[in-house]
Amino acid sequence: MSEKDNHTEPFTPYSFQQFLNGGKLMASRCGDCQQIYLPVRGLCPQCGDTNLEWVELSGKGKLAAFTSVYVGPSFMNAEGFGREKPYLTGIVELDEGPMISARLLGLDEKNPEKNKIGTQMAFATVEVGEGDSAYAQLAFQLEG
C-alpha cells in the first residue's frame, strides 16, 4: 500500500470509478482507527470518525469465494457471455484486509472445480464500452 495520496475527491462511487479508470485500486482509511474500507465510505462504521483519506492498495489478495455465471445480466450477454461461454465472479480478500467482489480472470470458467479458494489474485480492470462511454470494470486476475 502506498503512503497517503493527497486526493481531495469525495468518497463516492464516482470517485472510485475515476480511480479505476486511471488504473488505481483505491480505498478509504480512517484517520483515527486506521481501518480500511472498500467499497469506500465517508464515515467510519468502526469508530464514527469522518476523518478519512484515500489510500492506494497493493491489489494483491487471495480468492475467498467464486461462482461461474452461465446466465448473466444483459450487458454481459451483449459481450458474448452465456450458457456456452460463462464468466467468473467472486470475492477477493485483499492483503490489506478488505474483501471485495469483482470479475475474475485467468481461472477456468467451464470447470470451476479446478479453481481453488486461496489462489493468489492481482488487481486488474476490464475495459467496457466504447468511445466516451468506455469505463474500467473492477476485476482480479490469476497472479503470476
Keywords:
mainly beta; 5-stranded mixed beta barrel; 3-stranded antiparallel sheet; globular; disordered N terminus
Task: Describe, in short, the structure shown.
The chain has helices at residues 13-21, 74-78; strands at residues 26-30, 36-37, 52-56, 60-69, 87-94, 99-105, 120-128, 135-142.
Question: In angstroms, what is the radius of gyration?
Answer: 16 Å
**E-strand count:** 8
| Strand line-up across the major sheet | 4-5-6-8-7
Major beta-sheet overview: 5 strands, mixed, barrel
> How would you describe the oligomerization state of the chains in this entry?
single chain
Tell me the span between the first and last alpha carbons: 19 Å
Inertia-based shape: globular
Tally of individual helices = 2
- Regions with pLDDT < 50 over 5+ consecutive residues? 1-5
Topology:
Elements (H helix, E strand, L loop, with lengths): L12 H9 L4 E5 L5 E2 L14 E5 L3 E10 L4 H5 L8 E8 L4 E7 L14 E9 L6 E8 L2
Parallel strand pairs: 6-8
Antiparallel strand pairs: 1-2, 1-3, 4-5, 4-7, 5-6, 7-8
